[in-house]
Amino acid sequence: GVDGWLARRLGQCSRFGAWLDWGWLVSAVEWCVFVCNHSARGAHWKNSFTGSPRFIQAIMANGLRTPLGTWVVSGLHGLPLWLYGCQRGLLSRWLYLPAWGQVLGTLLLAAGRLLALSVEMVHMDTRLPRQRRGAGRE
Question: Any transmembrane segments, and where (predicted)?
Answer without folding.
Answer: 64-83, 103-123
